Amino acid sequence: MRQAFIDANIILRFLTKDPPPMAEAALKIFEEAKHGKMSLLIIPITVAEVVWVLESFYEYPKEKIAETMTQFLSCEGLEVESLDLLFEALNLYCEKNLDFADAILATTALRKGIPTLYSFDQHFNRINGIIRMEPGKK
To answer: What's the pTM?
Structure first.
């Protein structure tokens, strides 16, 4: 079976249906994957870029982004690296009102059993199990 990585712009065209000609072209690729003609590979940084664009440019609310991305990443024909981690991060992103990149960082820290995280961002304090430290403070 053919495999190919997929860029965030293809995913965004598919999800937003904008602009229509590109959305239609993107749909064809996802249909091929759904029907087993190819496998589309997605890495976490691509998911982070899609989330960022949906939030910053399309102004989707976090709840809609989390729901949309969870459904999308579950589609047939996709091979998503670190899928469980991404699902957890999407949940944390929405529930704790974090940036998605920070949600990935916190989820990774918790999964690896290394809960101490150096950051000036106080929103990490909202996450059970994370110990936020600031450089220069004890």
So the answer is: 0.93
